[in-house]
Each structure stands twice: as structure tokens, then as C-alpha cells.
Amino acid sequence: MRDLIQPHVNSLSPYVPGKPIEETERELGIQVSAKLASNENCLGASPKAHEAVMKMASQVHLYPDASSFFLKQTISEFHDAHNIDENQIIIGNGTNEILTLLNRSLLSEGDSACFPWPSFIVYRLAARGHGCKTVEIPYDVSKGFDFDALSKTIANEPSIKLVTLANPNNPTGTSFGRQELEKFASILPKDTVLIIDEAYREYIEDEDYPDAIALMQSRPRTVVTRTFSKAYGLAGLRIGYALCDPEIAHGVNRLREPFNANVLGQVAARASLKDADHRARAYDYNQAMRRKYLEGFRERGFRVPQSAANFVMIKGWADSQRETLNAKAMYESLLRKGVITRPLGGYDLHDALRISVGTPHESNALWNAVDQFLKDEGDQ
Question: For 7-44+277-379, CATH number?
Fold first, then answer.
């Protein structure tokens, strides 16, 4: 009998989401006080987005606009400095869907997708799930992106057709600057597609951060992805977009499922783009709280790379003489105290946890749980 599932699908390690809070509480008999595992905006969505959703709720029996006409119009206006035309915009059920569609539309049998590793796990799933090979460049967390190694690999591997870079990177939080990207793009083969995933763009404070949209306009085989799931606080509505050359957008739209962007997501996204005040509040809060997280974990002896996103990653101890951090034990210890973090074994980082910026209440719960873990470790 023929195999039911294709071998390349059977070989995948699926994305493992965190358990629902209610199930975690029931299973462990605890009260969750802080969910810091998924990099959501702890301040929530814009009040204008809430209002837009409530107004549209009476129309959820109708199919959404399949072309996302008004959302594309709003995105175009939002990026008016770059003169983005609506035929350069792809709307997706989150950027996860867009990344998957890009792999499906751009890669053929024998092609490869390249990206640093560890990075966003969907890059691996999108390519391998399409039956294509991945070329993964080891990412040294202490040194950041190794563009030289990336360039050499691409030059020696002609099968690479697609390169994806997250800026900032998930799960490390680290980012790269304008000159690094411009130099890399200038030597990248012209027929290689470059995707720059800017899921955390709204949290950036570095003046040297690249203008990826300008790069896209000067280098047509470049795609920039953005999401409403992070700073905009719309993770539950699953909405994202990409900016790219019309030829790429046209190809992806041939594969895109009809009505992939739901009606509530579309109106909430439009309202969010128009609410600069909420975006500023999210930015200011995140900058202040992220600094406290970086300082707090470092003061407690953890090794923490500089983060440009709304999360930090602790990776082992700052003191190299100490034994390897048992991240699994730390995760479980924090969980018993009602604090949910993200273990990174699935990213091949077995001594690391990723911890999202939380509210003041969540942050207090985090520090209490971390200090208890450290005390228990010291008592052993």
C-alpha cells in the first residue's frame, strides 16, 4: 500500500504552541498570573481597533472582502513616504501564512531556502513542508548575524533561491544595521529572493535600523513582511501583510486562499494603523520595561543578549564557570509559580528561555518566581 502522508511532511517537527491558560491551570492545579510565552502586546489592542470590531460584529455572517481593498488602501497611506502601490501588498492570515505562500510560489523541486538558525521556526516549516531543502547558517547569539558566512554559503550553493532574515531575530531578539544589510544585498545574486521579516519593527529605537522598504523598491526581488500580532495587539485576529514587487504579489495571490483575511481582522488592522497614540504608548512602555528585564536578569547572573523586540532571551549563565543552565527545570519552576515562559529546545537552544515583556503585575510575578528558582538552586 502506498504511504498516506508524503515523506517530507512526515519528517517535519510541527510547531508546538503553548497550552491554553485554562488547560494549564487545570492540569497543574495552579493560578496563572503571567503569560509571557508568545510575545504578545501586554497592553492589548488599540481602543480604536476594539471599537471597529464591535461595529463590524453584526456583519460576521457575511464573507470578508476577498481582496482586502480598504486595508490595502490604508496600508498604502500608512507607507506614503515610500509610495507603495496597492498591487505591491499581500494580505495574509498572519505573516505565517504569507511566509508559507512565498515558499510555495517561489520554490520548485531542487530549490533551497536559506536562513540563520536559530530563527523563526516557520521559515523551516514553510520550506520543508513544501518538499524543499533548507540551508541553515549557524547563528552565534553572542556575535549576531554572520553575513560573511551567509554570503559564502549562498555563493557556494546554487540551489538557494530564497533567503529569509528576521530583524529583530526571534527567538534571540538581536538585530542588524543598515550598512550590514546594504552590503549583503549588494552581493546577493540578483535572482535570489530576499525576505526581511520585520515582525517587531514597531519596537525599534536604533537609528541605524535599515529601511527595508526602500531596499525592496531598489531591489525588486526583496519582500518585507509585517504583522499586526505584536505591537498592534491583534494576535487573536490573525492578520499580517507583505510589501513586494507586483510580480511576486501577483504570484502569491494565485495561491492565496479566498477570504483568508477575516472581516474583523481587516477592520481592526485599519483602525490600528490610524492610532498613532496607541502605537506610541506600546513603544514607550516596551522600551522602559525591556530595559528592566535586561538589567534584572543580568543582575541575577544570567547571560542575556541585547534585545530590540518585546522579549528577552536568557541563555545560560554570565559566569562561564557555572554549570549549564537547566532551562527545562527553570521553565517548570516558573510554571509552578503561575508564570508561563517559552522553552527553546525546539530551536536547539536547550539552555535558554524566551520571556515576553509583561504588565507590571506580570513582571512582579516573574521576578518572584525567578528569585524563588535561584534560591532553590542555591539550596541544592
Answer: 3.90.1150.10
The C-alpha atoms of residue 12 and residue 100 are separated, in whole angstroms, by: 14
What is the structure's pLDDT at 323?
87
Cis peptide before 360 (omega within 30 of 0): no
Q: What is the gyration radius of the CA atoms in the chain, in angstroms?
A: 21
Q: Span 230-250, mean pLDDT? A: 98
The CATH architecture that domain 47-275 belongs to is 3-Layer(aba) Sandwich (3.40)
Residue-wise pLDDT for 205-225, tens only, equals: 989 999 999 999 999 999 999
In Å, how far are 106, 110, 182, 183, 277 from 189, measured between CA atoms?
Answer: 15, 17, 13, 12, 41
How crowded is residue 158: how many other Cβ atoms within 10 Å of its Cβ? 12
Q: How many CA atoms lie within 13 A of 89 on its CB side?
A: 24
> Could you tell me where in the chain the CATH 3.90.1150.10 domains are found?
7-44+277-379
Spatial separation of the C-alpha atoms in residues 160 and 172, rounded to whole Å: 24
Q: Whole-model pTM?
A: 0.94
What is the bridge-based pairing of β-strands 240-243 and 89-92? Answer: antiparallel
Burial class (CB in 10 A: 0-12, 13-18, 19+), 300: middle
DSSP 183-213: HHHHHS-TTSEEEEE-TTGGG---TT---HH
From 133, 93, 102, 8, select the one nearest 269 (Cα to Cα).
Answer: 93
Domain limits, CATH 3.40.640.10, in the chain: 47-275
